[in-house]
Amino acid sequence: MATSALPSARTRTTRQRPSRPRPVAQVSSGPRTLSLAAAVNAGLRAELAADYRVLLMGEDVGTLGGVFRVTDGLAREFGAERVIDTPLAESAILGTAIGLAMRGYRPVCEIQFDGFVFPAFDQLVTQLAKLHNRSAGRVRMPVTIRIPYGGGIGAVEHHSESPEAYFCHTPGLRVLTSSTPQTAYEAVRAAVRCDDPVVLLEPKRRYWDKGEVDEGGAQLAVPSSRVVRAGTDATLICYGPTVRTCLDAAAAAESVRRSLEVLELQALSPLDVQPLIESAERTGRVVIVAEAPRSGSLAAELAASITEQAYYSLESPVLRVSGFDVPYPASRLERHHLPDVDRVLDAVDRAFSY
């Protein structure tokens, strides 16, 4: 995901708008405590300052600062020509972004809620994901699509989806997610600098979680995964909103002297399964935890890959804790739908029963 210069006009399109000089982004000299939402804001601010070609687009991202206030203050700082309030038309937002990318810009699109991305699905999957291949590598699509995803905020229908499997199934898209302010800051900056289209999934119920963010020492090459807690008896694989759930479960398991390793995925596609295989070989038991429905999920792909490549190291089948195969329930029922510590620990108990 390293930054690269724009390809020449011969390999893209003629009459491109020339880019302005790239100033040095002003970032904090030391760590500071930020919420996850504020960390994304800081990452966007740094990229807007670093490159004139970066534009923000979305419904209410300008004057209002976004429905979660993630883009608060950026329109005042960079102007309405670079932080653009769009009509309520997701397909038009993505279609416009594709055209801007063809002309040399690096648009960042905000989809207000996960369930609102589907009107733009054709543009995203049929056009954006395929243009680089369709042009035999001559056209790059440096477009970032930020999507708040997952449940846990007591919202109404269409506001609590987990659509990651659709995008992970689509060749040509990179899919990233995060769980902490530091990883969110690094992910958004890496996504904007990437020459490929990136779907950046932000766990909305973690927007208010706070943590230290070292902007000056940020690593802008996002790792595929990381071990956030070492353990020896079983591995919990998770990503996005379920990382904190798994850390809480691992802490609770200490009371019965079980050592649980927590492995967080950050790059959901392309997927690097080798760190997962290595963890499975170390512990012998694996539980995958995700909010998305169970059938046809990313969790199913992870379970299949681990079983294929670490079969002889496993002491039990790879188990999954997920949302149920139903439309996302009304807010009064979502606590039963979402994976929680009890459901995770129950799966761990089942893994030890074999």
Structural commentary:
- With 354 residues, the chain is α/β, with parallel strands linked by helices.
- It has two domains: 31-213, Thiamin diphosphate (ThDP)-binding fold, Pyr/PP domains (Rossmann fold, 3-Layer(aba) Sandwich), CATH 3.40.50.970; 225-352, 3-Layer(aba) Sandwich (Rossmann fold), CATH 3.40.50.920.
- Helix content is 32%, strand content 20%.
- It contains twelve helices and 14 strands.
- It has helices spanning 36-50, 74-78, 90-102, 121-128, 131-134, 164-168, 181-193, 242-253, 274-283, 298-310, 334-337, 341-352; strands at residues 32-35, 54-58, 83-85, 106-110, 144-149, 174-177, 198-203, 210-213, 225-229, 234-239, 260-265, 267-269, 286-293, 319-323.
- A seven-stranded mixed β-sheet has the order 3-2-4-5-7-6-12, with helices on both faces. The protein has a five-stranded mixed β-sheet with strand order 9-11-10-13-14, with helices on both faces.
- Helix 2 links the parallel strand 2 (54-58) and strand 3.
- Helix 8 packs across helix 12 (341-352) and helix 9 (274-283) packs across helix 10 (298-310).
- The chain is globular.
